[in-house]
Design a protein that fits this description.
This protein is mostly helical and 410 residues long. The protein is built from 18 helices and two strands.
Length: 410
């Protein structure tokens, strides 16, 4: 699959993005966002303290992060669609095993398998698929995809809570497994077949095998890659900590039953930031979006801490944090493409993801531990400072004048 890009017409591209949007909503909703709503019941069922359950979740994220370079290599070699089809199957099986786990050990193993499967079906694989299908339009398509997938938390936080009112957490996971098997898997199989056939409206365009050339010269790429990965890692650390603990964190601050309502604003705010990015086109470069994203996080925390139990302040926090997280999802796909180009994109993003997820894997456990021992306010302040450090790292990337994006080999 390496070097094999397929140039799709606009109609089919829209269909691909919409299909990927569905699988990303389901993937993030079932494999990530639902955990926060089910963790308390999981802990009670298996007889563990809730912090231990979040600890296993952190280890599971670490396992997924360590597998990211392998996933990236497979994506470049076999195609992102095929890898995502395998991931959907793995996600369904892992959810079933977790739901049927007789004790803590099997529960922990299954949870690790769930996050391992997530590495093969979520954003990194989806972004790589869009790059493989047409690298010259990938940046715009990535923005469109994240715009759709931004509804994952808005849909699945209340959906999971509603399902859990009628079903046990084990039964909820069985429902989620069926959705992966019956909906996501067929879509990914279709995308795999699409990736295996060269489709072009203009045969001459297909023969050129166009690709995106990065903006950085070779001598700047290594240091820029390190700075980019540091920024991504710190920002993901903060986002993961706050997202996983969004509902219990807001409750601990005295917002009680309004926590779910406040949390549901996170998704629309993500969508709003991605809509802004889509409408602005390339007027704001990917590096600028990375800076804005990392600075919105400490701003949102400052608003939350200063407003106390004032509900409008908490709503503003959710909106600002959602705006930052929405842009962060975009730049994770577009910044590597902009700086380094489309050649070897899957493997490069896989390496960055490994560091990012390995660092952020500790976030759920560390944040839970800190909230328990130093309080919510101090914990939030420390993590906000880490987001500022991420902004400094992005700002340190030296980006020379952009070179021509499209190379057409003779």
């Amino acid at each position: 699959m390496a070097g094999h890009q397929i140039l799709l017409d606009a109609t089919r591209t829209h269909i691909v993005v919409a299909a990927l949007g569905i699988t990303q909503i389901i993937g993030y909703g079932t494999l990530y966002y639902s955990f926060s709503a089910l963790a308390a019941s999981m802990a009670k069922d298996i007889g563990w303290p809730q912090e231990w359950v979040f600890g296993v979740f952190s280890i599971s994220l670490l396992v997924g992060g360590l597998a990211a370079p392998i996933a990236g290599s497979w994506i470049d070699r076999y195609g992102a669609g095929s890898v995502m089809a395998v991931g959907s199957t793995g996600a369904a099986i892992s959810l079933v095993v977790c739901a049927l786990a007789p004790g803590p050990f099997m529960f922990a193993v299954a949870l690790m398998a769930i996050e391992l499967a997530a590495t093969f079906v979520l954003y990194n694989a989806a972004f790589a698929l869009l790059v493989q299908l047409n690298p010259t339009t990938a940046q715009r398509n990535i923005v469109h995809l994240t715009l759709i997938a931004g509804f994952a938390s808005t849909i699945f936080w209340p959906l999971t809570s509603t399902l859990h009112e009628q079903l046990s957490w084990r039964e909820v996971y069985l429902v989620f497994a069926a959705v992966h098997l019956l909906l996501c898997l067929p879509i990914h199989i279709w995308l795999a077949r699409l990736s295996g056939v060269a489709i072009a409206v203009d045969p001459r365009a297909a023969s050129t095998k166009r690709h995106v050339e990065g903006s950085l010269p070779a001598e700047h790429r290594q240091s820029a890659f390190v700075l980019m990965v540091i920024g991504f890692a710190l920002l993901s650390l903060v986002d993961a900590a706050i997202l996983v603990h969004m509902l219990p964190m807001l409750s601990a601050l005295g917002l009680g039953s309004t926590s779910v309502l406040i949390g549901t604003l996170f998704g629309p705010a993500q969508v709003a930031s991605r809509l802004f990015s889509m409408l602005s086109g390339e007027r704001i470069p990917a590096l600028g979006l990375a800076l804005i994203s990392s600075l919105l996080v400490p701003l949102s925390v400052a608003v939350l801490l200063s407003s106390g139990t004032w509900i409008p302040g908490a709503l503003a926090f959710a909106v600002l944090f959602g705006l930052g997280a929405g842009l962060a999802s975009i730049v994770q796909g577009t910044l590597p493409l902009t700086l380094f180009g489309s050649s070897g994109y899957g493997q490069r993003v896989g390496k960055a993801t490994a560091v990012r997820l390995t660092t952020s894997a500790a976030a759920p456990f560390v944040f839970a531990f800190m909230m328990q021992h130093v309080g919510v306010e101090v914990s939030l302040a420390i993590f906000a400072a880490l987001a500022v450090t991420a902004a400094i790292s992005f700002a340190a990337i030296h980006q020379p004048k952009r070179r021509s994006l499209i190379r057409e080999p003779s």
